[in-house]
Amino acid sequence: MNKMEIKPLEITIREIYDGYTDDIDDPEEGVTGYGGLLDIRPKYQREFIYDDKRRAAVIDTVTKGFPLNTMYWAKNTDNTYEVLDGQQRTISICQYVRGDFTVNTEGYAKAFHNLTPEQKDQILDYKLTVYVCEGDEAERLKWFEIINIAGVVLTRQELRNVNYTGPWLSDAKRLFSKRECRAKKIAEKYMAGSPIRQEYLETALGWLSLGDIDKYMSKHQRSDSADELWEYFEKVIKWVESTFPNYRKEMKGVEWGVLYNKYGAAVLNTDELEALIISLMKDEDVTKKSGIYNYVLTGDEHNLSIRAFTDNQKREAYERQEGYCTVCGEHFEMEEMEADHITPWIDGGKTIAENCQMLCRDDNRRKSDI
After folding, report:
1. pLDDT of 101-160, one tens digit each?
2. Mean pLDDT of the chain
3. What span, in angstroms and rounded, lies between the C-alpha atoms of 153 and 148?
4. Closest by Cα among 73, 53, 66, 82 to 151
5. What is the pLDDT of residue 24?
6. Where do the domains of the chain lie, and which CATH numbers do they carry?
7. How far apart are CA 342 and CA 345, in angstroms?
8. Sign of torsion over alpha carbons 105, 106, 107, 110
9. 129, containing H or E segment
10. What distance in Å separates the CA atoms of residue 130 and residue 73, rounded to the nearest whole number?
């Protein structure tokens, strides 16, 4: 393995903007510059996510002549380059020079074409500090992971994409990581997070791999397509739609794949499930409505975060019992006791003062384990 070589280079904005290509209507497509020699958005990089405030700050830094953070490029064997770190700053600069947005200059919103010739030259002649890294693919990708200092921290999945770039990842990102990807079109109302931050991809991978995403991506890195992942994802969404046909906003972000893996082959009565869901949605003691969908399948009350008794209700019950545990009959200080439903919630008991009893910690926990 060759040792990574890192060489400093000063490059003007004029040079980087030369040959700049970027389809603003489809920003996930390739972005190039530096006379066509620089790949500004390599496949393992995140999509462009700077907001107006961030990209305006980049232009403000340039116009004032202040230094931007160092950028890093990788040099390929064919003498072309890839941006390792600095993609979003580079795109912000180039899109401004192209006239895609305005920034506040001297109290007015001005595009690049509104500037004086002197102001334009000052921007175009601004020198960016770039370190060019040469080495094999594994070294470059590892270096990218180390030096990513762009100001928007990489997600776990973006870091995985660094290590497992290849044909499988390219196809998976087409399906799960574009702004209007296929996964978003069929499942947006069920999914939490953002496709372009790789959260759809990470979620689907976590479901299919049973949590071992790195192992799955390593195994499939050189595969030609992500069809297996897509077909699995489609099955999960179709199962959700058929099992819970009445959509509610609480269905967004549920770990549907985990439920599908366990109950996808089970025979379920959708009418009975819906009746139970309605009942739980109306139950004021259920404080976590999004947990209802897990509960109706698993029966685990922890998913519902059943409302706890208030301090006043606990005090009332303690005084009523004169400090004696209703199970063992021993006397305890209030701090040594815990509140419990006399009639369990599952049997219709409500979280009200009349249904509260105080048990010593040992008896309450033994009862909870039954």
Report:
1. 999 887 889 999 999 999 999 999 999 989 888 877 666 666 666 665 444 556 788 778
2. 89
3. 8
4. 53
5. 54
6. 5-154 (no CATH), 161-243 (no CATH), 311-369 (1.10.30.50)
7. 9
8. negative
9. strand 127-134
10. 7
